[in-house]
Design a protein that fits this description.
Elements: E1 15-21, H1 36-49, E2 53-57, H2 70-87, E3 91-95, H3 99-108, E4 112-115, H4 125-132, E5 136-139, H5 157-174, E6 182-185, H6 194-202, H7 204-207, E7 215-216, H8 222-228, H9 236-249, E8 253-256, H10 259-273
Parallel strand pairs: 1-2, 1-8, 2-3, 3-4, 4-5, 5-6, 7-8
Helix pairs in contact: 1-2, 2-3, 3-4, 6-8, 9-10
């Protein structure tokens, strides 16, 4: 287990989470790494480019994906965490819905847990997170990755997500997780249409009323491809626009594939937001 203080300190600038998918079938970069060493080398590249956190995942959550066994997920992620931790003290996040995978990852050196199910899929996950005393990302998802994009419907997507997090925060705290360790993620692309995603991003500031750190992951998502009529490999500029607006609307952490470019986007956005607002004559 990493010996660092497990309380995530959010700095003055937006925190950049770099994505390392150790999977054969993730929607954008699946099958990119042939070995744990390759994945660890890629993670170190992201760190050099400015990632504050690297998010290690061993199970694809793309629309229509099937779950993998616990043993297979462990085989994919634990050696990568071991390799990274040998040479870097960067923050490592484990992207999983399985309590034992999270437990083993934290034992190996991971610093936080990123659970797309909002810690609902595995009844033991909240206990693992509480015992480890690590930051945990609770995401909103409609259904599960296999079915989430089959005609998702909301009466009011912003209110639904807000109410979901109001309940989740209350429940997780009652399950022993410190409120200071909870991060919320509206789940862009997880059971949402293009219109739902755009509405959530546009009204992200509503979630700020919950007074919790917000993580947003718009990187290379299909709604950007729908807007631009472009493939997943051509969504850098679309991602940049979504990242900049997310920060402007209140995101504290952005989860991205293209770290070098999104560090630059976030730093400029941060600088504009923090620029003096007085003495402006209209």
């Amino acid at each position: 287990m990493s010996s660092r203080n497990k309380t995530l300190i959010l700095g003055e600038n937006t925190t950049i989470m770099g994505i390392v998918n150790c999977t054969p079938d993730s929607f954008s970069d699946g099958g990119q790494f042939q070995s744990p060493e390759d994945a660890a080398t890629y993670a170190l590249k992201l760190i050099k480019e400015g990632a504050d956190i690297v998010d290690i995942g061993g199970e694809s959550t793309r629309p229509g994906s099937d779950p993998v066994s616990e043993s297979e997920e462990l085989e994919r992620v634990i050696p990568v965490i071991e390799q990274i931790r040998k040479v870097s003290d960067v923050w490592i996040s484990i992207d999983t819905c399985k309590a034992n995978v999270a437990h083993r990852a934290v034992e190996t050196g991971a610093d936080m847990i990123n659970d797309i199910s909002g810690l609902r899929l595995d009844s033991k996950m909240a206990g693992v997170a509480a015992a480890a005393n690590v930051p945990v990302v609770a995401m909103h998802i409609l259904g599960n990755p296999k079915t989430m994009q089959e005609k998702p419907v909301y009466d009011d997507v912003v209110k639904t997500v807000f109410d979901y997090f109001s309940e989740r925060i209350y429940t997780l705290v009652n399950q022993g997780i410190k409120k200071a360790n909870i991060i919320i993620d509206p789940g862009i692309g997880f059971g949402k249409t293009t219109e739902h995603n755009l509405t959530l991003l546009n009204y992200l500031s509503v979630l700020s009323k919950l007074d919790m750190p917000i993580l947003v992951g718009p990187s290379r998502k299909s709604f950007l491809g729908n807007i631009l009529a472009l493939s997943v490999d051509n969504l850098l500029e679309g991602t940049a626009a979504a990242v900049a607006l997310s920060i402007n609307r209140g995101a504290h952490i952005v989860r991205v594939h293209d770290v070098k470019e999104m560090v630059r986007v976030s730093r400029v956005t941060d600088a504009i937001i923090k620029s003096p607002q007085t003495g402006i004559a209209c």
